[in-house]
From TrEMBL:
Start and end residues of each PH domain: 316-427
Protein name from the UniProt record: Neuronal guanine nucleotide exchange factor
Keywords tagged on the record: SH3 domain
Domain DH as annotated: residue spans: 120-271
A Pfam family of this chain: RhoGEF
SH3 domain span: 438-499
GO molecular function per UniProt: guanyl-nucleotide exchange factor activity
PANTHER family named among the record's database cross-references: EPHEXIN-1, GUANINE NUCLEOTIDE EXCHANGE FACTOR
Organism, as annotated: Gouania willdenowi
Biased composition (Basic and acidic residues): 1-19
Organism superkingdom: Eukaryota
SMART domains: PH, RhoGEF, SH3
Renumbered residue ranges of the record's region Disordered: 1-27
Length: 545
């Protein structure tokens, strides 16, 4: 174990009977009989999908979700939930074993002494330990089956090996140290006193290697596609390795993204300790992607007169795309003529708008304006002829003039997305969590979604978002509760949280974590303190079963 590891004490602080269990005849070195890693019969990818679905079903059961008839969401966007699962996790092919089913726990008589709230807390901490073992098992396959496989190594240059695997060996060492300390904690006693102290220690001392790995994933994905397309030997070898029974039908890329998936999952389990690490990972990835994107865009722009420097550390792309610019007289007769519309291509950055005309691979800049000097007006109330049309006003353009553009979007959702992006101070249909409103619409993700445009947000199963906007053609804008990220996503990947009590509980959990992090109190937080709101809701659900 690492020399810097703290001296973790496993005694239960509140109950003398529990203390006897910890230190008396019922105290057993569980891992000798448990052998966590060896006994994990499935890979982390298999566990992760199942655990996400269980999280969704538990939230459904907490609010006793029924088929949606009417509500806040756009018509056709709500998903009717299937029969909900029982509250407690069930053992199946891809689920973790339960703490309460361990032979040592059953033999100790603890289950007869503990309150349901305490059992749930034990299960939650035990899941963190066993899921970490499952994650490490998957990392071992990445190392032995891919990284150190001579068949694969012989198809790649040294630089390509680095592009694909980055610092995965350092990540494995950090994960091994972390798992060793978690196993040591469960060796101390069948009663798990806490794990948040261990998570915090490793987040501070060792988890910085995740930042390097996640940042490099931008290049990792691009180079993997490049090698796959241009290296036939690699392609043939990878086909054989991915079809080996050892990997259970999982793709090579599902192993490469393991560190990112694990660090974000750990953050959800112990939010405060890992907030900084995950934030730095996300920021690192964003900076790399944004810089590459700015360089690429700047190479395609052509300025007629005064050029605007595009590449800047404080600038990034928010949205780009083609809209139709209306020209000429604005009478009903002329508006029926499609000739009065000409395509223009907009590049919207966080602090700048470029109005351009596309010519092949180049974009000729027609106008520009700082984002703070933009105003929009919806023209929907002016009749069907102005459907999907809005006014864009540049209060002070590149020539210091006030200019109006009448723009036509491809759809209602496209128009709303442009208006929200161009004028961020524009009032949304629903309130943000930062407004501290007592209740706002919320949705939970029932399937993952990968953002396709800069103004979209990538979501994972079981993410909870505060709803800000929704359109009749199935798009929504939301703010994710656990990190405040905003963006658009299709309504088909979410379902509405109808229970006011569950929505309020979700907000309380988010505010509690936010305030604890801002106040720098995470060193003193225990796992019990972080999860007590979740346990409270779970117990409330139990009483209604």
């Amino acid at each position: 174990m690492d020399d810097k590891s703290p001296n973790f004490d496993g005694a239960h602080p509140d109950n003398k009977d529990h203390s006897l269990v910890s230190n008396g005849r019922n105290s057993q070195p569980l891992s000798h009989g448990l052998k966590i890693i060896q006994n994990i019969g499935f890979l982390y990818q298999e566990y992760r999908d199942t655990s996400k679905q269980q999280e969704i079903e538990q939230r459904r059961q907490r609010e006793n979700l029924s088929p949606v008839k009417t509500g806040t969401l756009a018509a056709g966007s709500a998903v009717v939930s299937p029969p909900v699962l029982q509250l407690q996790l069930r053992n199946n092919t891809h689920s973790l074993s339960l703490w309460q089913n361990l032979e040592a726990v059953l033999a100790s008589g603890l289950l007869n002494q503990l309150e349901p709230k305490e059992i749930i807390m034990q299960e939650t901490m035990f899941e963190l330990i066993t899921s970490e073992a499952s994650y490490y098992k998957s990392l071992e396959i990445l190392e032995t089956h891919f990284l150190r496989n001579p068949l694969l190594v012989n198809t790649l240059s040294q630089s390509d090996m680095h592009f694909l695997f980055s610092n995965i060996e350092e990540v494995m060492k950090a994960s091994e140290r972390f798992l060793m300390d978690l196993e040591h904690r469960i060796e101390e006693s069948i009663w798990i006193s806490d794990v948040c102290d261990i998570v915090h220690h490793h987040a501070v001392e060792h988890f910085s290697v995740f930042i390097t790995y996640v940042i490099n994933q931008v290049y990792q994905e691009k180079n993997y596609r490049r090698i796959l397309e241009g290296n036939q030997r690699f392609r043939e070898t990878m086909f054989l390795l991915e079809n080996h029974p050892h990997v259970r039908g999982l793709s090579f890329t599902s192993f490469l993204i393991l560190p990112f998936q694990r660090i974000t999952r750990l953050k959800l389990l112990v939010q405060v300790s890992l907030t900084t690490i995950v934030k730095e990972c996300n920021e690192g990835v964003r900076k790399m992607s944004r810089t590459e994107e700015l360089i690429s865009i700047s190479q395609t722009l052509e300025f007629k007169s005064k050029s605007v420097p595009i590449i800047s550390h404080s600038r990034w792309l928010l949205k780009k795309g083609e809209v139709q610019l209306m020209a000429g007289p604005k009478s009903n007769r002329t508006m029926r003529s499609r000739k009065l519309y000409q395509p223009v291509y907009l590049f919207l950055f966080n602090n700048l708008l470029l109005v351009t005309k596309r010519s092949g691979e180049k974009f000729h800049v027609l106008d520009s304006c700082t984002r703070a000097m933009l105003r929009t007006e919806d023209l929907e109330d002016h009749g069907q002829l102005l459907a999907n049309v809005f006014n864009l006003r540049l209060l002070e353009n590149q020539e210091d003039r006030n200019v109006n553009y009448m723009l036509k979007a491809t759809s209602m959702s496209d128009k709303l997305r442009w208006m929200c992006a161009l004028t961020p101070s524009r009032r949304t249909r629903f309130m943000s969590t930062s407004s501290h409103q007592p209740d706002s619409p919320q949705v939970q993700c029932i399937q993952s979604y990968s953002a396709q445009e800069p103004d979209e947000i990538s979501t994972e199963m079981a993410d909870v978002l505060n709803l800000l906007e929704c359109t009749d053609d199935g798009w929504m804008m939301g703010e994710r509760l656990h990190d405040g990220e905003r963006g658009w996503f299709p309504g088909r990947v979410v379902e509405e949280i109808q229970s006011k009590e569950v929505r309020a509980q979700n907000l309380r959990e988010a505010f509690k974590i936010q305030h604890a992090h801002e106040g720098g109190k995470h060193k003193d937080l225990t796992f019990k303190a972080l999860l007590s709101p979740l346990v409270e809701v779970t117990l409330n659900s139990l009483t209604h079963l």
